[in-house]
Design a protein that fits this description.
Helix content is 51%, strand content 7%. The chain contains 15 helices and five strands. It has helices spanning 5-9, 49-56, 69-74, 102-107, 116-125, 131-140, 143-146, 159-171, 175-183, 185-188, 190-200, 206-216, 220-234, 237-245, 249-259, and strands at residues 20-21, 38-41, 62-65, 84-87, 149-152. It has a five-stranded mixed sheet with strand order 1-2-5-3-4, with helices on one face. Helix 3 (69-74) links the parallel strand 3 (62-65) and strand 4 (84-87). Helix 5 packs parallel to helix 13.
Length: 261
């Protein structure tokens, strides 16, 4: 993991974590993603007045939330300046289900449902036929109107990781760099993950805790599962962009010209 990525992308906030500027990455044609247009983050409920001032200075136009209804009701998004808040759940199957947080899941002994296999299946399903990512990419397709934007979920790692992959690949950032951006959350979420491990440890054995820790660490195979689904379904990312989102070469060029320098 190239540590030099850290200073240029992580925005230190008092009440939110993993808030990152996706600018600075090089594309295959030698251009660079502009700073100040595309952001990714974890939940934003705890933003402080200082955080608000910092983010309002960015001039955000959209806050795009991947969480389901239960998550959003438990930790609602704040209003940030003039930004429009949009929530479209990336996992629509969970939208109507009662919200159970991880602590409750472990307290009730339901943690066996949480595994690497479950996460692999989730990642494989996320990018195909998703109303959430269609809305995200519709916003990206009109960058002059809709950027800057921040996309987020609970930890800013899984659902947001797939959304970030779609954005960066559309801009022409190599997949290897996209993977580095994805795995960077293992560093930016170190304290978040440790808090989760400490929270659930009273309810499970040492072996189960070790398995949970391993599953929770972002791994290349998770994001690969999303990319593999795209290629299996469409044959190429370009065909996926056009058939899933209506982003043909002309639209993609316009997005790139606006977001790259």
């Amino acid at each position: 993991m190239p540590n030099q990525l850290m200073p240029s992308c992580l925005i230190p906030l008092e009440g939110a974590f993993n808030f990152r500027d996706m600018g600075g990455y090089r594309t295959t044609d030698g251009r660079t993603v502009k700073h100040g247009l595309l952001f990714r983050a974890a939940e934003l409920t705890g933003l402080t007045p200082n955080d608000h001032r910092q983010l309002e200075a960015i001039g955000l136009k959209h806050v795009f939330d991947y969480r389901n209804r239960g998550e959003a009701e438990q930790k609602p998004d704040p209003v940030i300046g003039q930004a429009v808040n949009t929530r479209v759940p990336a996992n629509e199957a969970a939208e109507q289900a009662p919200h159970i947080d991880l602590a409750e899941l472990f307290q009730k002994g339901l943690h066996h449902h949480f595994s690497q296999d479950m996460l692999l299946q989730m990642y494989a399903n996320l990018p195909i036929g998703s109303r959430s990512y269609r809305e995200l990419m519709k916003l990206l397709a009109s960058p002059e109107t809709n950027l800057p934007i921040v996309q987020h979920c609970a930890g800013g790692r899984d659902r947001t990781g797939v959304g970030s992959m779609l954005i960066l690949l559309t801009l022409g950032v190599p997949y290897e760099t996209v993977m580095e951006d994805y795995l960077l959350s293992n560093i930016t979420l170190t304290d978040y993950h440790q808090a989760l491990f400490d929270m659930v440890s009273p309810y499970i054995s040492v072996e189960e805790l070790r398995s949970f820790e391993e599953a929770m660490r972002l791994q290349e195979k998770y994001l690969d599962a999303s990319m593999d689904s795209i290629l299996r379904e469409y044959g190429s990312f370009e065909r996926y962009l056009e058939l899933e989102f209506g982003i043909d070469e002309e639209v993609r060029t316009r997005i790139q010209d606006y977001c790259l320098e």
